[in-house]
Amino acid sequence: MGVSSDRKENWKTLSPEMGERIIQMALEDRTAFEDIHSQFGLGPNEVVLFMRAHLKPVSFRRWRKRISNQGHLKNRKLNEFENGLKVTRFKSKKQRTDGSIKNRK
């Protein structure tokens, strides 16, 4: 399974920093494929092909296995709901929206 020359040409137009950012985002478990698509225009299948072309074979297989087993983590729509309930993150009552902390000594 090779990568078409058109895709390789499109990848060459990306700066090295953008390529590193795509790899970093793909390796993060909490980053959804939708985020990568909105920033770089690569769909999930294209991200897989990009990772295959840019990672070592062993690293790619490990990443692919992890994503296949935990693929639901890469999908924002499924990630927001768990058992039919919207999942919210813990926020301390001492935490303010401006980032400062109340009663800090």
Q: SSE string, helix = H, strand = E?
A: HHHHHHEE
How many DSSP E strands?
2
What is the chains' assembly state?
single chain
**Helix-residue proportion:** 40-55%
Spatial extent as radius of gyration: 18 Å
Biggest sheet strand order reads 1-2
Structure characteristics:
105 residues, mainly alpha, two-stranded antiparallel sheet, 6 helices, 53% helix
Molecular structure report:
The chain has 105 residues and is mainly alpha-helical. It has one domain. It is built from 6 helices and 2 strands. 8% of the residues are buried.
Please give a quick description of this structure.
The chain is mainly alpha-helical. The protein has helices spanning 5-12, 16-27, 33-40, 44-54, 57-69, 76-79, and strands at 81-82, 85-86. It has one domain (5-82).
Question: Topology of this structure?
Answer:
Layout: H1 5-12, H2 16-27, H3 33-40, H4 44-54, H5 57-69, H6 76-79, E1 81-82, E2 85-86
